[in-house]
Amino acid sequence: MTNLLSNADARRVFIAKQGLSTPPNRALTKDGLLQLIHDLGFVQVDSIQTVERAHHQILFSRNQTYRREHLTSLLEKDGALFEHWTHDASILPSSFFKYWKHKFVQQEEVLVERWRKWQGEGFEHAFEETYDRVVKNGAILARDIKADDHVSGGWWNWHPNKTALEYFWHTGKFAIAGRSNFQKIYDLVERVIPDEFREQEVSREEFVDWACRSALTRLGFATSGEIAAFWRLISPEEAKAWVTAHRDELTEIIIEPALGGKPRPSWALAEFPATIADFPEPPARIRVLSPFDPMIRDRNRTERLFGFFYRIEIFVPEPKREYGYYVFPLLEGDKLIGRIDMKADRKKGTLDVKRLWLEPGVRGSAGRLDRLAAELDRVARFAGVERVILADGWLG
Q1: Distances in whole angstroms, Cα of residue 36 to Cα of each of 61, 100, 213, 290
Q2: N or C: less crowded end of the chain, CB within 10 Å?
Q3: pLDDT tens, 333-347?
């Protein structure tokens, strides 16, 4: 039997799955933070700090009592979280480390040949030298072993030792022990990941089953392509084969899109239709989302569910930008209502709002602007600045 899921129900389910339906003021303990990250699956890490770094803002968007020091403790002291790649650098529960071992093997098969073409013959010597240095001397930053005459740049201009550090991290020999001014601190994986997580093993079959089942649980409903893309651990072909093999545990759901058009067939776990009414409505307040928020990571899914087209314009030349360098989506209840261009000026102690764009059909009513002002005040306090400054013409 095929079930039709209305667009309103689909949004409500997905927002709840994304941790955005729980009361945002409820006290979040360190254990609660670990559970939140587990339920989300991952929290993306990014260096841009226009207002606050992505991982902090993602967590703050879900709970305004979030404390940065809890995240640091879980990562750097308790070993309950670790940093590695999904679709991008992310923070993950260490209980998932056993599944990432399969990713390490995949990376090992690909990276050496790719980086030999990039760095040239003989670069492996730096690998041996770098590994031995970390074994003997402990945790290290890339800058600690950079040649004096090397000119720093992006990933395309890594010095050989930095390449070695990244290779050993991507292949599970090193782990990230912490960060200093956002630069990674690398150490042997056995010094960072607790034995209880590091020594666990799963078969390839168990790994693929977990990758698919856990992705579908966190998405609520998904195509096989969306299942594969969630963790970026398995191929679309593997996800499709998993759906076929577990068809008796799944149900087909037809998702009504936000802007009309043909409903999209998706899959859900068999018990899903009976639970749809259990998902709460999200709070009516406005929330500023990070451009890297997991709720909008899949831009095509975001457009289908919310009718909201969003792209980060960091790499778009300024004259060609439609909105701005780093523009934040706005969630109100179950709708993405617009985007805002703003930046924290810590020297002046201000959150400078340059421009607001509301979506077509969304009115800038007094009540809505009051809710936005309340959220901007919350964001300003979280970013460590004292007041919000609205630029002339910020309403467009």
Answers
A1: 12, 20, 18, 17
A2: N
A3: 999 999 999 999 999
